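Many introductory courses stop at the sequence. We go one step further.
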Amino acid sequence: MKRAAPAPVRPAGLRRGLPLLLSGALLGALVTVTTAGPAAAADLSSTFDTVSPGSAAPGWTTAGDVTVQDVAGTVDRSLRLRDTSTTAATTARAAFGTTSQTVVAGFRLRASQTTATVGVHLDSSGGHSVTVAMSAAGRLYTYDGTAQRDLGAYAPNRWYDIRVVARPGTASADVHVDGERRAAGLAFRTSTTALDSLQAGVSVGDTGTAHLDDVRTTVESSPAGWPQLGTIAPRSAAQVGSSKLLIGAETLDRGYVDYRAAAPYLGRLGATGVRLQGGWARTEKTKGVYDWTWLDEIVDDAVSRGVKPWLQLSYGNGAYTGGGGSGLGGQIPTSAEALTAWDAWVTAMVRRYEDRVTEWEIWNEPNLGGIPADTYADFFARTAARVRAEQPDSVIFGLAEAGIDVPYAEDFLVRLAAQGKAGLLDGVSYHPYNPNPDDVWTYQQIGRLRTLVNQYAPGAVVRQGENGAPSRPGSFGALGDLDWTELSQSKWFLRRLVHDLGQSITTSAFSLSDLHYPSKVNSKGLLQTNTDKTIRYAKPSYYGVQALASVIDNSLQAKPQSTFTTDSSTALTVQRFAKRDTGRQVVGVWNGTGKPNESTARTPVRLTLPEGDFADPVYVDLRTGAVFDIPAADWSVSGGTYTFRNVPVYDSPVLIADRSTVRL
């Protein structure tokens, strides 16, 4: 397998793209923040947690009873707006500086009742341009121009995760609630070419209490002279139908994640498969007695959302002497009694879920636990034979390696083949954690792994089964010793997934939500969690992966051997796809030379693509979901060779795509 060759860069004197300014507060009555860099925006994502209850929130301008308070019945601290007057205003306001660029505002909103109007606004000098509100009749709503647009019912004392994408350039906006786009292309209430602040409050004529939290605003620059057409329309897993993009929901077997809390976001993401760990120890706490209740709920719910479960048969069970380890790096069962019980549990598991699950994986990261490859191969063959006996059409994956341990994989494959058991193996999976997801060594190792699989188990595939990056420093697990933010995490996920998909590799994002290990939180989730494992909000990485899922599905075919040339002074990573029915193309391009950084400054480059196919090319920033027309002056075609000029590129994937491949 060859990686698409990056062209050396030669040009000098390229102008730099405008820096993407991140500004910081959005929530409550009106939270605004002066434009700042990425670090400032990250610092404002949990502003109220360190403010003493009863105090004013630093940097806020308020009217009425507005203070930081603990939220009853939760483990949260937020900004409370308590309105006891029908004549006086109760508001909170902040300014993020006048900007004509796109403003992405995220915040959480909670009302203590359904009988008062509570609103959050993005404002200009002329007034409210975009509004999201809770009505006195129990409905969420926004505006399309002067017309009110219903967004569904809301309940009291429940947090709502809200995201607003406002585009002054076209005086239009999109609104997302709990990871779902509820409205798109809304006309501004008050037309303006610039936004400057955010305001929230309780209606003067009503009395009531509202809480606001996790205010996050970013200002996203646009390519100069490239008209914005809108944003990618998310598609649910059921709408996507088939893709190579998976999502991880691991550690449910140990209770490190609250599936019920994260479930509403699962189908909305658009990934069509979910990796689950079966949990022998959780299912069989008493010898010979299976309680499937916990797993039934998860499997059935995932299937109902159009997401196909991929079940891992793992880990051990302490109810049995020699039952193996029940966590990360755990040993396989060794005693005769435990192995017999393992066989029985595997058989019962397959029988129970064979009508809903066809893909299975045997054990997790045996190389991490120091299990000899030959020992694991024998255990794999034993387990796979029982799966195949119950479900002849099952698809069985092995290894689930920590990293990409080619020698270990070779020993495993040689042992299987020597015993005539290679036919039990349909694929091998690996977990390649590294700071730079585009590291050349990684894809060289994948190439070696593919060669071995083709040699010893022809027809089997390779799958990236578990991979992610934290969203903050000090995270549990791989890469946790490095500095991360939600911005760098979102870039990392998109680079890993687009690169894998461009190499025809089925690939999984680890994970759906943050994981609460006994010692500390693993912040690799696409969803930020509270200390009680409930969902706080969807991180930028969630929306980036959601946009990716909408565009790159199995209707596209990867073209991994594609070539390109560029005038970029930095080596670029380019991955190309083509529609199976029309041949129209989608090309991902980014700077993949290092770990994702905290800048959103783009550099305009020239990109030439031989054997292209574009009728109406557009530019897509997957991280933000923004879609722009590429003016005729900035692209040309000669024969089948397409040249694109002034393409804004940075260290997060952008797409040059035929308009027919993108849904707005």
